[in-house]
Amino acid sequence: MSGSSLGDRVLAELFILLTLYFLLSIMQREIVVNKVKQQYPNAIECSIIDHSDGCGAKLELTVVSDSFEGMMLLKRHREIQNHLKEKGLFDEIHALQIKAWTPSQWEKKKGDN
Length: 113
Prior knowledge:
This protein has helices spanning about 5-40, 75-85, 105-110; strands at about 45-50, 60-65, 95-100. The radius of gyration is 19 Å and the shape is elongated. It has three helices and three strands; from the N terminus they run H-E-E-H-E-H. The termini are far apart. By secondary structure, the protein is α+β, with helices and mostly antiparallel strands. A three-stranded mixed beta sheet has the order 1-2-3. Strand 2 (about 60-65), helix 2 and strand 3 (about 95-100) form a beta-alpha-beta unit. It is about 50% helix and about 20% strand.
């Protein structure tokens, strides 16, 4: 052996794999946000939070757009979900919480906090 134990090498390889996994999760979140921004170019807010400790399986997406004016909440969610499915981005996401609000709803939510 050349100065490092098998355990040290295994830990180093595990660290590399976890780092890659984390980086892929960050990339996935960025891709989702970019695709939603393409779908709603006039969105005043488009953000994503990972609630899955970094693996990207449980996400919370917030989209604020005047495109949602007069649209039922369920239709907003379906529109976003279908767009992400069409782009092949739903396969790795276990749970997606969508907050799709109009600008006036967004202002009210911010005021409530």
